[in-house]
């Protein structure tokens, strides 16, 4: 059955639909699937032993470990900060709110290398505040917080807008205090959105490169993240080792994607 | 839940303070640093031959990647929203991959296919085509990273609009193309526009994937973002700031375009409103085509199998939630 048969009653339409879908799928395969399968296949070019050596070298383990930890921290801070900002943007009224709301998307629109340079200007050696975080682990965290800012906010905001205020009013009339209302009524409704936003932020943080590359200083065993390590391996002409470490990053991304999808189903089920 | 005044203010200060320190102050500072030595110096450093070439190359690459991904996005979104076919779940998952994968890994993947020792590299080199460390590689990398935007913006809109109008057009004898051009396309136009704006921003701003495959040859394979990095590496801070300010301006223009698109403006985020970002398509259709004032949606499969127009009109209005 063709993709467009729903809308098309005429056979001609469904043929064009099938053709369009075929071309689109081919495009997707050539652009995305072929290169990615090359990473998976070529990571084993040197055999399983070489793959294991590449991903278990001290530097690789340190980089991957730091990447995962700092990404978890990023996601955790986003859960709190993002929910707070979404709350203020939806429930509070203040002048300039529209501008603030539009600015939330800035990290998506701003090139990552510019984000890195911007943060290095403010929190680097020439900082007007005298805060020099350059080439520290906190700097990496800061860069990741910058680029992942919109995820939780943009996933919580619509849910909060659509949230039925009557439930809260009912709880209030029954004598519940604000903390109780938030914990028992608002928060449970937001949890799926918060978690999926956090998962997206985590996935983005694991792969982030542009904003981190300048500010991290790329110090092995301290501030080197996985993606920068892969970049160094490519530059030193070790594509097979780079592919091996990339495979680990790919698997993390895939796991997160599947997690978000499972979360979506779970959220939809609990919606009713 | 009504928060008392004191709490409201402290939450507001906390949220806005976080945003100011993380977003606003850094971005304002970059403009300050850019222009602290005067506008003339900035102009000089963004009009050097290398800078002009970088700007042109960035625009060229964007001009190739965005139309291709828009076309792909619309076709794929229609297929995902309207059709049931084998492998749909898999394709749906694959579309998200470019968002989830590190740009460096994307660059590496292209090297492994098109590089000199890559799967197709040898054959391409024999044919005289160089992909890696050349413009085609940059184009491929840019297409890869910006692929999902249009699909992901248009699919929910199509689902939200429903296919009643299309069915009506079909029963009135409109062909597939006419239905698409007159009914489907107008109802998704703002979704497409939004996806295009996001794609353009990403194409212009892509750094990681492009930096792996470009080879960074000044005047040949250097894009704007690579120019920023190179100038920073060469201790040409003023030059790096100037190019960054240009990119930041493009980003701000993107934000402006995003807010200008109907249904996406912050007006729709009013606390009292019930308009979510995905509803705009419905409103739009209601305005342009005299649609019923209620929204009726049901599983596509039942409609496809046996519903006729007459039958459906006698159906009681019913609203379904959840599958968007």
Q: If you had to describe this structure to a student in words, what would you say it looks like?
A:
Chain A is mostly helical. Chain A folds into 2 domains: 42 residues; 225 residues, Orthogonal Bundle (MetI-like fold), CATH 1.10.3720. Chain A has 12 helices and no strands. In chain A, helix 6 crosses helix 7, helix 7 crosses helix 9 and helix 8 runs antiparallel to helix 9. The radius of gyration of chain A is 23 Å and the shape is globular. The N terminus of chain A is likely disordered. Chain B has 16 helices and no strands. Chain B has one domain: MetI-like (MetI-like fold), CATH 1.10.3720.10. Chain B is mainly α and 324 residues long. The C terminus of chain B is likely disordered. In chain B, helix 7 crosses helix 10. Chain B starts with a helix and ends in a 10-residue tail after the last helix. The longest helix of chain B is centred in the first third of the chain and has 34 residues. Chains A and B meet through helix 1, helix 3, helix 4, helix 5 and helix 6 of A and helix 1, helix 3, helix 4, helix 5 and helix 7 of B.
């Amino acid at each position: 059955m063709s993709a467009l048969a729903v809308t098309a009653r005429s056979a001609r339409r469904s043929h064009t639909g099938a053709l369009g879908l075929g071309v689109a799928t081919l495009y997707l395969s050539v652009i995305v699937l072929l290169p990615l399968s090359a990473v998976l296949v070529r990571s084993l070019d040197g055999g399983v032993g070489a793959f294991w050596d590449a991903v278990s070298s001290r530097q690789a383990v340190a980089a991957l470990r730091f990447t995962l930890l700092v990404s978890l921290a990023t996601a955790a801070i986003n859960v709190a900060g993002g929910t707070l900002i979404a709350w203020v943007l939806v429930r509070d009224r203040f002048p300039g709110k529209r501008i603030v709301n539009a600015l939330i998307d800035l990290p998506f629109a701003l090139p990552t290398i510019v984000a890195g340079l911007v943060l290095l200007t403010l929190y680097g050696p020439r900082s007007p505040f005298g805060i020099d975080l350059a080439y520290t682990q906190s700097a990496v965290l800061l860069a990741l917080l910058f680029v992942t800012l919109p995820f939780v906010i943009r996933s919580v905001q619509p849910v909060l807008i659509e949230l039925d205020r009557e439930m809260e009013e009912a709880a209030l009339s029954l004598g519940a205090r604000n903390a109780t209302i938030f914990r028992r009524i608002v928060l449970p409704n937001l949890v799926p959105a918060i978690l999926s936003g956090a998962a997206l932020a985590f996935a983005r943080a694991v792969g982030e490169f542009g904003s981190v590359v300048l500010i991290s200083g790329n110090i092995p065993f301290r501030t080197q993240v996985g993606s920068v390590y892969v970049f160094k391996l490519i530059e030193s002409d070790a594509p097979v080792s780079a592919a091996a470490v990339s495979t680990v990053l790919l698997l993390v991304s895939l796991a997160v994607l599947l997690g978000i999808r499972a979360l979506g189903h779970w959220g939809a089920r609990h919606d009713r | 839940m009504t928060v008392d005044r004191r709490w409201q203010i402290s939450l507001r200060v906390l949220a806005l303070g976080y945003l100011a320190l993380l977003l606003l102050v850094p971005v304002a500072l970059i403009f300050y640093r850019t222009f602290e030595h005067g506008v003339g110096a900035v102009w000089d450093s963004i009009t050097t031959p290398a800078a002009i070439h970088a700007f042109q190359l960035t625009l060229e690459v964007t001009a190739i990647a965005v139309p291709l991904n828009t076309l792909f996005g619309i076709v794929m979104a229609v297929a995902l929203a309207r059709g049931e076919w084998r492998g749909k779940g898999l394709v749906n998952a694959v579309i998200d991959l470019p968002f989830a994968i590190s740009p460096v890994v994307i660059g590496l993947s292209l090297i492994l296919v098109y590089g000199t020792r890559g799967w197709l590299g040898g054959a391409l080199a024999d044919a005289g085509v160089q992909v890696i460390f050349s413009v085609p590689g940059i184009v491929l990398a840019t297409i890869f990273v910006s692929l999902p935007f249009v699909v992901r913006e248009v699919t929910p809109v199509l689902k939200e609009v429903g296919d009643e109008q299309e069915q009506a057009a079909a029963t009135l004898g409109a062909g597939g193309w006419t239905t698409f051009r007159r009914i489907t396309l107008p109802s998704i136009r703002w979704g497409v526009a939004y996806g295009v704006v996001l794609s353009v921003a990403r194409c212009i701003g892509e750094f990681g994937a492009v930096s792996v495959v470009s080879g960074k040859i000044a005047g040949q394979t250097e894009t704007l973002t690579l120019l920023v990095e190179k100038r920073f590496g060469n201790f040409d801070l003023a030059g790096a700031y100037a190019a960054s300010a240009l990119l930041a301006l493009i980003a701000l223009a993107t934000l402006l375009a995003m807010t200008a698109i109907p249904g996406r403006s912050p007006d729709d985020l009013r606390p009292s409103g019930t308009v979510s970002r995905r509803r705009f398509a419905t409103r739009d259709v209601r305005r342009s085509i005299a649609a019923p004032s209620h929204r009726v949606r049901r599983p596509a499969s039942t409609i496809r199998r046996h519903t006729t127009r007459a039958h459906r009109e006698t159906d009681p209005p019913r609203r379904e939630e959840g599958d968007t």
